[in-house]
Amino acid sequence: NFHNAFASIYEGRYLAGIAAGLRTENNHLGYVAAMQTPECIYSMNAYFLGARSVNPDVSMDVTFTNTWYDPTIEGQAAQALIDMGCDVIAQHCDTTAPQLAAEKRGKWGCGYNSDMTPAAPKAHLTAPIWNWGVYYTTAVEQAINGEWKPENYFGGMAEGFIDISPLSENCAEGTQEAIDAAKEKIINGTFKVFEGEIKDNEGNIVNKAGEVISDADITGNMNWYFENV
Asked: In the beta sheet, which residues pair with residue 92?
């Protein structure tokens, strides 16, 4: 317990949100989340920020499964969101059940961890993914060179650690261009997902104009939900 490795997965969530915001037909997104922890909360907030960047009229409902892995509950949660009128289902859970539910009901979805298009070819848009090889290569090279230190590693899209899976043919026209533009800004550092004035769903200003929320606060202290979530 003297070394941790993680990454800014919220950057990938933001890009997936762009795909969802452009794809929705009724501006009502759904999100199947696992736990009420900062990781799940900042992930859904980033996803929604991405969606709203291209579609200011979107809203989003969230269902928590309170488990990291349960295909039955994940599928039921997705069904419940679809019953509420959500037409794009995202997820922070480990199985393809939410994407399968979306396909069965003629809706769309954004998976997680891997390209879930093969599982739900008529529904899946894209998925935030981790490229752990980036970290492993760095760690091994440091060990070989005698430079490895027991300090936290936190990578991101600029290092190639975080990305999204290839867009499927289910995406709306113009999605690739919009995502490419946002991705370039994230990589070159001219844009931060959690920057500028941000309000929570109770109307409180949680970040002021001209300021950026630090990764430490994002990953450890985010316990609020973005407006319209």
From this structure: 33
